[in-house]
Write a structure and sequence with these properties.
By secondary structure, the protein is an alpha/beta fold. The chain is built from seven helices and five strands. The strands form two sheets. Strands 1-2-3 form a three-stranded parallel beta sheet, with helices on both faces.
Length: 174
Amino acid sequence: PRATVEAFNVGIGGENILGGLPRLEQDVFSKDPDLVIVEYLINDSGVNFRHDDSEGPGPVETSHRELLQKIQDHGGIEVVYLTANMGNPAFVQAYTFENFRRTSDLYHSLCEEFGCAYVDSFRVWENMGEAMGQYFITRLKGNMVNHPFGNQDIAWSADETNAEWLLKLFQPKE
């Protein structure tokens, strides 16, 4: 209860894993973190599909594997993948549920493989959209591209929900 907690946001707006991975040593490891939260869903979803018939993992999967391996090799760092924010396909063609789902599924499989926690808010948003019969994300966007109206709609706060799930991850098991 009396611990000092320092938080650093080393993210760069508009960046995906391809840009973030090279900054891991300097911007993340230099802070000596106990916990790293990875949240690239919106920007990874725009590049995580192939335009050809080639086999094997694409650059997003390869980069996430490298990121997770480097964190694992560094030691002593817990990792949480978070899918918090989606985009509007009316402005970026790749911002579709299909691409978000594909990226979310990739994160889920990587978290299982590397033993990371996964807070998949995307599935909550997806279920809300299905229940409303429309692309629900579009209604939450303050700039109609990718920034929510204060992350809040219909008395539901994405930040509060994500924080609650993160706290549950680190509660002692009874």
